[in-house]
Amino acid sequence: MAERFTVIGATGYIGSRLVRHLQALGHTVWAPSRGDAALLEQPLAHVLYCAGLTGDFRTRPFDTVEAHVGLLARVLQCAQFDSLLYLSSTRVYMGAASTHEDAALSVVPGDPSYLYNLSKLTGESLCHASGRPGVRVARLSNVVGPGMDVDSGNLVADLIQQARSTGRVELRSDPASAKDYIHLEDVVNGLVRIALQGRHAVYNLASGVQTSHADWLGWLGRQTGCTVHVAPDAPLQSFPPINVSRLLHEWPGAIQHSLWDPLLVSAFQPQE
Q: What is the CATH number of domain 143-178+209-240+259-266?
């Protein structure tokens, strides 16, 4: 059945792909521009809250808090909607003993790197405390797909840009470093499922599989023929595996797309 959606943050990488995906499914989509007063004046139906900053959050702390918390607070307090799905991040598990959605989390307010985590967690807490029905949170892992934005701080996008632009990749972390990555197509499919059918308040939207930097470098070398140089004393970046049991219990086929998508490289426009 066709539904109506409002995508907040529709100009971003995930938001823009969500708009196209929803339209392809036959849904009606409104993508309000930044500062559109109508956001708080008209019925929004199902809201997908994608507004946020990623790679530049350290240099734009006030914009980060406004996107992750300020605008969200106004929508939760004043807007008319049937459901709202807030996009958070699996970065919030940094330093935690468990990556289950109900785990206790750890933060270090004095470390500027934690501003992203703290603002996302504040947004999550607002969602839970709002008392509004149909409000959920999706914690996204590292998203890869055609058209990735290098400025977002995405490691894979950076590696592809280097390979396409110069034929040489400079890795500034230990190749054994590993993270959880998920393909963009699984993300947009998962977000729509959670928004319309989710039975829980919080979901990890991740692959549940660790992929090392060495894995990416090997694949990229086969795709482009690039050479690799690892910086001296490159640090090992260790991230815990993400628990996806809740996601896969409700939707066993939620993770379908291979990370090793040739379009990641062929769709990338190298810089001059």
A: 3.90.25.10
